[in-house]
Write a structure and sequence with these properties.
alpha+beta; globular; two-stranded parallel sheet; 7-stranded antiparallel sheet; 194 residues
């Protein structure tokens, strides 16, 4: 999305004059409409995933998501700016520990380390900082795999008892670092547990 904005901005000017092909107001309206379409498309994907699984396997927190994210932040994130909630978690992990680096193709195998009978917090990041948006779900590993298939941003998986939070950090290349916050051992470091 950020790359699209840059390209469209390059094609614009304040008046649509010689250097720009489109007036800036037209470009801004296009960007706003594109953002709305992306949000609508995401919701459509989530709705499709939701009908594939039992309600207990995929819980969408429509009203209490801010409290869940606040609790996760208080446990695992260093908040430098109280006005910027639920963003830029990657660079603000408390006591970050790199578990290991994996390839993108191995993400599904890592999810298999989670207990199939347990639900986990899953936080997906949409967009680029500072305007990125984080969405939290309460789901089983099989649903996590479906969410990964439709998501392109960073992914966080956390224990529902708030013992640990692991980021699958998206990078430019094929390498995905698994970075942990929390003092307890994670299933990514040992066998599965609830």
């Amino acid at each position: 999305m950020a790359q699209l904005h840059a390209v469209v901005q390059d094609l614009s000017s304040d008046d649509g004059g010689e250097l720009g092909l489109l007036p800036r107001d037209t470009v801004n309206a296009y960007i706003h409409a594109e953002s709305n379409l992306c949000a609508m498309y995401w919701q459509e994907k989530i709705d499709r995933i939701g009908i594939q699984f039992a309600q207990a396997d995929f819980i969408r927190h429509f009203t209490d998501w801010p409290e869940i994210l606040k609790t996760l932040e208080s446990c695992f994130i260093i908040k430098c700016d109280l006005n910027s909630r639920f963003s830029n978690w990657s660079e603000q992990f408390k006591s970050p520990t790199v578990i290991r680096n994996i390839s993108r193709e191995d993400i599904s195998a890592e999810i298999d380390r989670l207990d199939n009978n347990c639900n986990y917090w899953v936080i997906l990041v949409h967009g680029d900082y500072p305007t990125s948006k984080q969405v939290v779900y309460d789901c089983k590993p099989i649903v996590i795999k479906s969410l990964i298939e439709v998501s392109v941003g960073d992914l966080f998986i956390g224990d529902k008892k708030y013992n640990w939070l692991v980021q699958f950090q998206q990078t430019e290349g094929n390498t995905v670092p698994l970075v942990k916050s929390g003092k307890h051992e994670t299933p990514f470091e040992k066998g599965s547990y609830c």
